[in-house]
């Protein structure tokens, strides 16, 4: 019997079977070791892949089909349960290897801390890296309850590595007063509540630079994405998030890698969140992979 893994639910739909021939690599980071409210995002990568079977392969938004981009699904990195220190090392090593092969890394989380080792790897290859960060939360704490390795510290770590002025956060609606103060004093760009319009204004500043995009699914209002660990009301719509992804595509920004994190399927029996995430990933693949310079 012929078995096609691209339609089995084991890999993201239409994945290419050959790593060497692929332009991009999808990989899962099934970790939720440091979450402060509800665990479960470690199951996100698997379920997003499984529901991707329901996607149309054609994007009406971009007039492209998935078969036009060769991307390989490498599966999940086998992260050691409960060990964030070792997990971030393994993620960084994996992304180092993908970048060494000049491929576009597209990560699926997992909690948002998984983005930190990816940024470290990206910065080694692209010293002038900028970050577009879409999220409900600032994630700018130095530590959370005394723990510096936390999903609440990821953007602070990234900003300290690449320089706060190179981090552009959108959709933020929750954080400590001290976090907003630190961002302002250090020149970091935070756009509260909204994403699309402030993003459009920022895109010209990012032209010609290597850009990494990290999207926390909780930037969406819980009405659009209830399946996440730390829900926060007052978020944007799925339509606005799609339009924001497309704005980056149409600007032909030099996106060199991206991730989508914090999908926790157990809290959404309707699977609305996982299905939305898979569609967002389709648009990220079609809009960003071939724009690399």
From TrEMBL:
PANTHER family: ARGINASE/AGMATINASE, GUANIDINO ACID HYDROLASE, MITOCHONDRIAL. Belongs to the arginase family. Agmatinase subfamily. Catalyzes the formation of putrescine from agmatine. Pathway: Amine and polyamine biosynthesis; putrescine biosynthesis via agmatine pathway; putrescine from agmatine: step 1/1. Keywords: Hydrolase, Manganese, Metal-binding, Polyamine biosynthesis, Putrescine biosynthesis, Spermidine biosynthesis. It catalyses: agmatine + H2O = urea + putrescine. Its cofactor is Mn(2+). The keyword Chloroplast does not apply. InterPro entries: Agmatinase-rel, Ureohydrolase, Ureohydrolase_dom_sf, Ureohydrolase_Mn_BS. GO terms for molecular function: agmatinase activity; metal ion binding. This is Agmatinase. Pfam families: Arginase (PF00491). Mn(2+) binds at residues 112, 135, 137, 139, 216, 218. Its EC number is 3.5.3.11. Binds 2 manganese ions per subunit. One of its GO terms (biological process) is spermidine biosynthetic process.
């Amino acid at each position: 019997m012929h078995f096609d893994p691209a339609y089995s639910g084991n890999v993201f739909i239409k994945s290419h079977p050959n790593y060497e021939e692929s332009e991009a690599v999808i990989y899962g980071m099934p970790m939720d070791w440091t979450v402060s409210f509800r665990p479960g995002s470690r199951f996100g990568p698997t379920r997003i892949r499984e529901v991707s079977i329901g996607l149309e392969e054609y994007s009406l938004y971009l007039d492209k089909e998935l078969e036009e981009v060769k991307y390989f699904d490498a599966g999940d990195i086998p992260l050691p349960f409960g060990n964030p220190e070792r997990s971030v090392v393994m993620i960084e090593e994996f992304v180092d290897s993908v970048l060494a092969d000049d491929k576009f890394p597209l990560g699926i989380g997992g909690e948002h801390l998984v983005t930190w080792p990816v940024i470290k790897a990206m910065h080694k290859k692209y010293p002038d890296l900028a970050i577009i960060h879409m999220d409900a939360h600032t994630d700018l704490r130095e530590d959370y309850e005394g723990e510096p390795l936390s999903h609440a510290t990821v953007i602070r770590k990234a900003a300290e590595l690449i320089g706060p002025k190179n981090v552009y956060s959108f959709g933020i609606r929750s954080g400590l007063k001290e976090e907003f103060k630190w961002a302002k004093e250090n020149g970091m760009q935070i756009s509260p509540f909204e994403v699309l319009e402030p993003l459009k204004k920022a895109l010209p500043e990012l032209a010609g630079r290597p850009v990494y995009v990290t999207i926390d699914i909780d930037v969406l209002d819980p009405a659009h994405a209830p399946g996440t660990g730390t829900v926060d009301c007052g978020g944007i719509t799925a339509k606005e998030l799609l339009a924001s992804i497309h704005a980056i595509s149409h600007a032909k920004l030099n996106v060199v890698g991206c991730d989508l994190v914090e999908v926790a399927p157990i809290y959404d029996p309707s699977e609305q969140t996982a299905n939305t995430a898979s569609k967002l990933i389709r648009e990220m693949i079609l809009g960003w992979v071939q724009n690399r310079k």
